[in-house]
Each structure stands twice: as C-alpha cells, then as structure tokens.
Amino acid sequence: xxxxxxxxxxxxxxxxxxxxxxxxxxxxxxxxxxxxxxxxxxxxxxxxxxxxxxxxxxxxxxxxxxxxxxxxxxxxxxxxxxxxxxxxxxxxxxxxxxxxxxxxxxxxxxxxxxxxxxxxxxxxxxxxxxxxxxxxxxxxxxxxxxxxxxxxxxxxxxxxxxxxxxxxxxxxxxxxxxxxxxxxxxxxxxxxxxxxxxxxxxxxxxxxxxxxxxxxxxxxxxxxxxxxxxxxxxxxxxxxxxxxxxxxxxxxxxxxxxxxxxxxxxxxxxxxxxxxxxxxxxxxxxxxxxxxxxxxxxxxxxxxxxxxxxxxxxxxxxxxxxxxxxxxxxxxxxxxxxxxxxxxxxxxxxxxxxxxxxxxxxxxxxxxxxxxxxxxxxxxxxxxxxxxxxxxxxxxxxxxx
Length: 401
Fold this sequence. Notes:
Residues 24-201 form the Spore germination protein N-terminal domain. It holds the Pfam family Spore_GerAC. Its main location: membrane. InterPro entries: GerAC_N, Spore_GerAC-like, Spore_GerAC-like_C, Spore_GerAC_C_sf. Keywords: Germination, Lipoprotein, Membrane, Palmitate, Signal. The chain has 401 residues and is an alpha/beta fold. The chain has two domains: 24-241, no CATH class; 243-401, Nutrient germinant receptor protein C, domain 3 (GMP Synthetase, Chain A, domain 3). It contains 14 helices and 13 strands. The protein has helices spanning 2-17, 55-64, 83-89, 110-115, 122-126, 144-149, 158-172, 181-189, 206-209, 243-252, 316-344, 351-358, 360-366, 370-374; strands spanning 30-40, 46-53, 73-80, 97-99, 105-109, 135-139, 196-204, 222-233, 236-241, 259-265, 268-288, 291-307, 379-390. A hairpin with a 5-residue loop joins β1 (30-40) and β2 (46-53). α10 packs across α11 and α12 (351-358) packs across α13. It is globular, with a radius of gyration of 26 Å.
C-alpha cells in the first residue's frame, strides 16, 4: 500500500515539475529584432524603428553569394508616448510577436540625444528579453530610422555591420569605443562620470542606400561610417570629439589596444609611423591644500611600421629621439581631449570617480558642483613612456635624404 502511494505521489510531483511548456513560443511566431532605433516626433512622441531579420532571405543570399536572395531585413516603426506603447503599437504592423532577445544594437537619433537620454533605457533594462550588453550608438546628422534603413554589403544585416565596425575600429584604430546599454546606465547613475557614445553617420545618398541595388554594386551609393565620440553633459548631448582628440579620450580610459602614431622627423610631418601593439594607462588622484589634481601615466610599446625619411635604427640616439617625439604626440592628444571636456564642463573620463575612491570625504564636499566648478579648472598631469620594440627587417634606410 505504501509503495502504491509513493508511486502516485511521484507521478503527481512529475506533473508539477515537468510542466515547463506553458510559456513556449514557436519560432515561426516571432519577429526577431536585431536593432532598435529611437527618434522623436515634433510633438515629443517617441518613434521606435525595428530592424527585423528575414531569415529566409539572409540564408538565400548566403547560398547564392550575393544580394539577389531578397532584402535581408525589414524595417517597421511605431509611435507612442513612451517606448513600451510604441513597441506594443507595432503589433498592428507585424504578423509576429516582437522578440528582443537577439537585439544587439540601439541607435539613438541625434535630436533625441540633444533633448536627453535619461529615461530611454528604463524600459530596456526592465525587459526580461532585452540584454543590457547591446551596443549603443548615436546617429550623427541623421535620424536613427535612416541609419537602420541603409543596406550594407559584406555583412548582410546592417546592425551587424555597425557592431563589427565599432569593435574592430576600437581595437585597431582607437578613435571610437564600444559602449553598451549597461555602460550608459552606470554612467548616468554615477555622479563622477558622464556618458560617451560612438557616432555613426551615413556617407552618400540616403534614399539610394535604402534600395537593394546599394549592395549589388562594387561601390555602394551609401555607406555607414563609424566616426566620432558623442560627449554628454548629465544626460544631454554636449558635443562631439573627432580624430586624434577622440583617441586621446581612449588613451585616458585605457581602451587603446592598437593604433598608429605618426611623428615628424627631419622637418617632414608624418614621416615615421609607430604601430602601438600594447598600451596601459593608470589614473590617480591627489589632494593638495584642499584642491584635487589628476595624474595620468601611459605606457606604450610598439613597432616602426613605416619611415618616409632616412632613419638609422642602429643608432640608439635616433631611437631615443623618436621615442621622445612619440611620447609628446600621445601627450598632446590626451591634453587636447582633456581641454575639450573641460571646455564643455563634462567629466567624460570619470576623474570624479577616481577622486571619490581616493578621497571619499573630500568628494562629498565637491561632488555637487564638480562639473561646473571643479572639473573645468582641474589640474591634470600627463606622463607618457613610449618604447620602440622592433624596427622591422631594415635597420639602415635605402631612402635618400
């Protein structure tokens, strides 16, 4: 009798534990959103643009080796008073459930960024599907909708093109950075750092870039180009940083992996190319007579990639002189970046966090007017140690002076 009761109890327990299919969703019922764009209408309503994958067309294009398999993504958009409302209203245009688990990119329109991004990420963070590891970019001179509508070669899904470009550009060039939704939320919640986000722009005709013919030509009419870093003050877009100044930001943030530094030699500008292969930045805070200061120390190691003027690499004195020029070039980039941020009165580097970690009591007194009063006049000292590891196969030049 006891055995029968035990068997019945076990079967009842199994029915409770194994009933895990109640929330199932068929793959054919899902619209897989790979990227989301956020814009605003003139009357202040949110416009959400969804880049939805067409699985059959992506697979077909891969098999046929071109864009003849149909458009790999479809674009849908909806308007609402908030992001949740816009997302729900999109169901009127889609025959499938919107699925955010594979959303890897969020594009913010420049006008939205100017108005403020403080409330944009609340709905994304609360969602059980959306991942805060998704990359964030700001559309420069364009709307997020236009950026997501551009069809791209090589990577058939445009969102993947942007994501990979940002990552590889950060790794090999160092003038853009990979920023996630979680990073932006942490910066907004911090009193000692403001957000920085990479920009993406459209080069060429926007209307032609939306057509499939854009990926069927050897030179597309429109391209997506990752360029610049958006600086925010509190939650609003304060300005942009480009070129070597943008790289100065990454030097301070210890995000430089590889890059190329060109220096002057024998009165010729950009004569020698120095390829950075590894770098390390340390930032420390100091307090003297109640005033904070920041010291930045950068160690760089690299190779000589190119020399357009005669340089005798067997001469230690010439090697030393080149290292000094490289150090000064890196230092100038960092100083330009710091001065630009101080001009905009926004601590994009997180110097406030550094002061807080070292001097928490003093930070309590200055945190409320840090951006407006203390940071713009903050003393920042930069020290750079550059080392030439290798000079290539040729040590003596064949180029005539």
